[in-house]
Amino acid sequence: MRLAGRLPWVAMCMIAGCLPRQGRNLEVSGAQGAALRYLALGDSYTIGEGVAPGERWPVQLAARLAREGLEVAAPEIVARTGWTAAELEAGVDARRPIGTFALVTLMVGVNDQYRGQDTTAYRRQLARLLARATDLAGGRADRVIVMSIPDWGVTPFASGRDRAEIAAEIDRFNDAARDEAARAGSRWIDITPVSRRAAREPGLIAGDGLHPSRAMYAEWADLVAPTAIAILRVPRR
């Protein structure tokens, strides 16, 4: 399905990221020298389009980990609204995160699906990203967490579109992502069911009618936290 060919240009840009934005497009941030370093790779969902910087789910996750007694630096984020998996890899190449990370999270693919790309190409690209993420985690694939793609079809932005078809495509992309995570030896966290609750819980959607609210991001952080805690409490070797 090629949604982009049937949507108005301005609407396409809300996901594809071609409209000008102020200071939220690309970010690599975080403190150096802390005991545990965390790298978050992704697209608009990781950069937190639609919410304040402190409400991004990686930032909320880091705060949750700190409450568990884990000394974690502010997350280093490489993400941009509209990025596909290939564009994320190019972004990592451009920014070159330095050093080894105790934890790496990866969430990407919604823009591949939105632009009508097939899952075969997505699988190949995700495998490349997983290899990069593993390298950044010091060769430890088990310190890489792959998160599923949220279902944007339940949002007000998708009004008038075939929501069932969007959901089916999201499921196919998530099947591919879960398979590649297992093949790489990485962890898998399914946040898609939470995203689908937005169909009946409008408070889970940000004011732009498309991206998650702080409340949804908090739920994502809660889902990731137990796995992240288990990873970080295992001594690095």
Brief overview:
The protein has 237 residues and is α/β, with parallel strands linked by helices. Helix content is 43%, strand content 9%.
Name of the CATH superfamily? SGNH hydrolase
From the spread of the alpha carbons, the general shape counts as globular
Number of strands: 5
Total of helices: 9
Q: How many structural domains does the protein architecture include?
A: 1
Secondary-structure element series = HEHHEHEHHEHEHH
Q: Estimate what percentage of residues fall within beta strands.
A: 5-15%
Strand order of the main beta sheet, please? 2-1-3-4-5
Main β sheet profile:
5 strands, parallel
CATH architecture: 3-Layer(aba) Sandwich
Uncertain spans: 1-33
Helix/strand-derived category reads alpha/beta
Q: Residue-averaged pLDDT, rounded?
A: 88
CATH class group: Alpha Beta
Look up the CATH topology. Answer: Rossmann fold
> Compute the gyration radius: what is it?
17 Å
Q: Helicity range of the residues?
A: 40-55%
Distance between the termini: 45 Å
